[in-house]
From TrEMBL:
It is found in: Cell membrane. This is Probable membrane transporter protein. One of its GO terms (cellular component) is plasma membrane. Belongs to the 4-toluene sulfonate uptake permease (TSUP) (TC 2.A.102) family. The chain crosses the membrane at residues 31-55, 76-93, 99-121, 130-148, 178-195, 201-221, 228-247. Keywords: Cell membrane, Membrane, Transmembrane, Transmembrane helix, Transport. It is a multi-pass membrane protein.
Length: 251
């Protein structure tokens, strides 16, 4: 019962955080590992659990995604699908022990990126930097490979990539972020499912609570103008989980 409660709370929090600020997998992934799910399976299950929220958010932003900006949404989604598949395949061939050793570093990258994400995006938007379309798609591909391999911090990395590309419309950036996350996660979870990496019992708890949390977070997001306090809490949890995983892997 304690395990179910922890997974449900983590899933609810992850869904709400994804809806409000992004980065919720930082919460659900460690909870699954704590519940005894092997790290690679926990990563796959957490990605699957977040998928309905990504799809719902992408639909909510559908009117903001279309635009004259380059690269086009169709090309970006195509690159996202390729990146998600490559990242998922890379995870499938990664030994459990190696992944366990890499996880603390991935959590650290995700936490630091989540903490610095808004500042980085604002800086890139102010500088007005832009890349060629080929370079822009290559950057998105690299981030999507990361997302297919480890979902934590994906949203913030995508926003940062969009800023580097030269996008300035934050509504379009958020819409594309959700659309890409949904596309690459769909491909990734399909590969994970075929490979037998989904813990279906845990997914039922985390996925359902994540969907509920996503709805509640979307409602709350309309009333919150400053998410700084929420980000501080998430970063603190992320750092605590990072230290814990470092201690488990290298202690």
């Amino acid at each position: 019962m304690l395990t179910i409660i922890v997974l449900a709370l983590a899933g609810f929090a992850a869904g709400a955080v994804n809806a409000i600020a992004g980065g919720g997998t930082i919460l659900s992934f460690p909870a699954l590992v704590w519940a005894g799910v092997p790290p690679i399976m926990a990563n796959a299950t957490a990605t699957f659990a977040a998928l309905p929220g990504y799809i719902g958010s992408a639909w909510a932003y559908r009117s903001d995604i279309d635009g004259d900006g380059r690269p086009s949404p169709a090309r970006i989604v195509g690159v996202a699908v390729l990146g998600g598949l490559l990242g998922a395949l890379l995870l499938l061939v990664t030994p459990e022990e190696l992944f366990s050793g890499v996880v603390p570093w991935l959590l650290l990258v995700a936490t630091v990126t989540f903490a610095a994400g808004p500042m980085l995006v604002r800086h890139l938007v102010r500088t007005g930097r832009s890349l060629s379309e080929i370079a822009a798609l290559a950057l998105v591909l690299a981030v999507c490979i990361y997302g297919g391999y480890f979902n934590g911090g994906l949203g913030i990395l995508l926003l940062a990539a969009f800023g580097i590309i030269g996008m300035t419309n934050l509504h379009r950036m958020n819409g594309l972020k959700n659309l890409i996350s949904a596309a690459l996660s769909s491909v990734s979870v399909l590969a994970y499912s075929i490979a037998g990496l989904i813990d279906w019992s845990a997914l039922l708890v985390v996925g359902l609570s994540c969907a509920i949390g996503g709805y509640a977070g979307a409602v709350l997001a309309r009333r919150i103008h400053n998410t700084a306090f929420l980000r501080v809490i998430i970063v603190a949890i992320g750092l605590a989980m990072t230290v814990t995983f470092f201690a488990r892997s290298y202690g």
